[in-house]
Amino acid sequence: MNSANNQTKKTPSELMLPDANGFFGPYGGQAVPPHLKAIMDDIAKAYLEIRETQAYQQELMELYQHYVGRPSPIYFARRLTEACGGAKIYLKREDLNHTGAHKINHALGEALLAKHMGKTKVLAETGAGQHGVAMATACALVGLPCEIHMGAIDVAKEHPNVTKMKILGARLISVETGTRTLKDAVDSAFEEYMKDPDNFFYAIGSVVGPHPFPMMVRDFQSIIGREARQQFPAQTGKLPDYVVACVGGGSNAMGLFSGFMDDEAVKLVGVEPSGRGLGKGEHAATLTYGKPGTMHGFHSYMLQDEQGEPEPVYSIASGLDYPSVGPHHSYLKDLGRAEYHAVDDTACLDAFMKLSRLEGIIPALESAHAVAWAMQEARRLGPDASVLINLSGRGDKDADFVAEKLGL
Ligand SMILES: *Cc1c(COP(=O)(O)O)cnc(C)c1O
């Protein structure tokens, strides 16, 4: 808001570009030691060069088409729309991508970049295993060694993903230190990375971390928005009134939003998890309840304690339980270009079941948050309005958990 004055000069598409230091307004940047900053600058330079080459763009586009199965369709959810009694609800089907979610879009971009930069190993941490599987897939495809660090507790909990990563040829490091969860996996992967950052590539799994990752991952995911911006008017004769996506780190939302940034009549809505309630450690609604701070190498809204340390977070959808959020989202929130709302576990489970039983589509619990917001608002928006939801992933991974939780 302190940047409101210089904002008036910016065109909507200029909102897409961070400045030379990787800031979107006051958010983002490179809050890392000088040695690491130099490496991040190298990656930014390589990316900006490679991005302009025909060979790289063509390779990525061909993979999107023939490997991922893009473009993903837009589907009118007729029965869900009828059940909600208001706005027409459409789904952008990222759940139909190879590996079942949007993450493959940036995993391929990062793996190709690592390969073009001559890196010898790709490193990543993973919580529930979704980012790990996507990176293991992309590394198998481009032929790069891949090492995934995962907390021992998550290794035990997320067995199908662990097995997949092994089959795909990734080296899996089970982290036995600390709380043996994602936080420790990050530390462990980072420690390995710092042994040889010139030759290793640390693949970040969302639009977070130091510059250039928020910009780069956003660019890779922007294929979602570019497709949707073409598909939706071709199918319905007009633009959607609302585009909606769940927000963990914020990559699938940024991907969809970026296609509609210049369409000021199109409202951009991000949906965060309010989990079990608003107590400490009960939710992960960073933009809704957090405040600006710095962690993990960048400045953004975050959930933090008095010492500025990240607070514990929780969501029924493990892909959404992150205590910060991509800096570009923080900027869009302050400018009022995007709005952010929170949806709790109960509404999420209800949306998960409704979409399954009315449309035969089992969504990821993450994506079900976006569906839940549309279901809640459909009547208020009215039958003339249309809502396009990014269905970021499929729910196979969540099926057993939900069935047990609901006693099915
Ligand atoms: C990881 C994940 C998310 C959350 O990540 P974003 O960066 O916020 O998109 C959402 N949906 C699915 C299916 C995921 O796997």
Automatic annotation (TrEMBL):
Keyword terms: Amino-acid biosynthesis, Aromatic amino acid biosynthesis, Lyase, Pyridoxal phosphate, Tryptophan biosynthesis
The organism's place on the tree of life at top rank: Bacteria
Domain (Tryptophan synthase beta chain-like PALP): residue spans on this chain: 69-393
PROSITE patterns: TRP_SYNTHASE_BETA (PS00168)
UniProt entry tagged with the keyword Signal: no
Cofactor(s) it depends on: pyridoxal 5'-phosphate
Reactions that this protein is recorded to catalyse: (1S,2R)-1-C-(indol-3-yl)glycerol 3-phosphate + L-serine = D-glyceraldehyde 3-phosphate + L-tryptophan + H2O
Transmembrane regions: none
GO MF, any single term: tryptophan synthase activity
InterPro entries registered for this protein in UniProt: Trp_synth_b_CS, Trp_synth_beta, Trp_synth_beta/beta-like, TrpB-like_PALP, TrpB-like_PALP_sf
Residues bearing the modification N6-(pyridoxal phosphate)lysine: 103
CDD domains: Trp-synth_B (cd06446)
EC number: 4.2.1.20
Main enzyme class: lyase
Pathway noted in the entry: Amino-acid biosynthesis; L-tryptophan biosynthesis; L-tryptophan from chorismate: step 5/5
GO cellular component, one term: cytoplasm
Record's function text: The beta subunit is responsible for the synthesis of L-tryptophan from indole and L-serine.
Subunit structure comment from the entry: Tetramer of two alpha and two beta chains.
NCBIfam families (UniProt xref): trpB
Family: Belongs to the TrpB family.
HAMAP family: Trp_synth_beta
Protein name in UniProt: Tryptophan synthase beta chain
